[in-house]
Amino acid sequence: MTNWIQRWNEGEIGWHREVPNSKLIEFIDHLQLKATDTVFVPLCGKSVDMLYLLEQGYQVIGVELSTIAVEQFFSENSIPFEVFQEPDFVVYQSDKLRIYCGDYFKLNAKHLASVVAVYDRAALIALPTGLRVKYAQHLYAIIAKGCRVLLLTLNYPQSQISGPPFAVNQEEVLSLYENGFECQLLQCFNDLENEPKFQRENVDFIEKATYCLRKY
Ligand SMILES: C[S@@+](CC[C@H](N)C(=O)[O-])C[C@H]1O[C@@H](n2cnc3c(N)ncnc32)[C@H](O)[C@@H]1O
């Protein structure tokens, strides 16, 4: 089991990127957002994708286990914030952003009452098999009907290299979300040429997929 707190303590955050994810930019229209809508970013780390969403005028709610991640997000992006304690969470609040510092599985529908869309990059695929089922069921439980989800996944031969990120193929995405979500595959391609770590390990392929889900 990944010790995320230790990863943050030791700065082992190889998943973090300094620029917004190109698939968020390419496919954000599928979320059908209106100005000032609220987007939920589960397992948000200190992702600059949240900054991108804020810059587009949206409000953002994140959840993240690590205090280091949350505090680095605010300080590295020079965003003033207030902190307060709630049951189960330390809440970091700025003008248009709220990050719940604590466990995703403790969030409930009231925390996300304003949310109309979800952006999942490196959240589902950060979790091992059994937890992925729990993660998807919990997402269904805490978001409103009609909510759209932009989901980014990776798929590669899991026997050739271990996760996280874990391999999650199309069949698994469909089975995780078949009850309660419409599921549309927007794009899927092999991107081995841009993944030197996977090349070094002689992995046969690494597929990157983008889905748009809608809770019904
Ligand atoms: C692979 S990172 C991805 C972070 C972010 N989505 C990004 O794209 O940079 C996964 C993050 O999930 C956080 N995390 C793992 N389990 C969690 C949980 N149960 N509740 C909240 N955050 C969690 C970890 O601390 C880590 O920052």
TrEMBL record:
InterPro entries found in the cross-reference section: SAM-dependent_MTases_sf, Thiopur_S-MeTfrase_Se/Te_detox, Thiopurine_S-MeTrfase, TPMT
Any one GO molecular function term: thiopurine S-methyltransferase activity
First-listed, main subcellular location of the protein, grouped into a coarse class: cytoplasm
GO annotations of cellular component type: cytoplasm
Catalytic activity: S-adenosyl-L-methionine + a thiopurine = S-adenosyl-L-homocysteine + a thiopurine S-methylether
Subcellular location(s) per record: Cytoplasm
Domain of life: Bacteria
EC nos: 2.1.1.67
Protein's UniProt keywords contain Plastid: no
Binding site for S-adenosyl-L-methionine: W8, L43, E64, R121
An individual GO BP term: response to metal ion
Keywords in alphabetical order: Cytoplasm, Methyltransferase, S-adenosyl-L-methionine, Transferase
Family membership noted in the UniProt record: Belongs to the class I-like SAM-binding methyltransferase superfamily. TPMT family.
Annotated NCBIfam families: PRK13255.1, TMPT_Se_Te
Protein name: Thiopurine S-methyltransferase
Taxonomic source organism: Candidatus Thioglobus autotrophicus
Upper taxonomic lineage: Bacteria, Pseudomonadati, Pseudomonadota, Gammaproteobacteria, Candidatus Pseudothioglobaceae
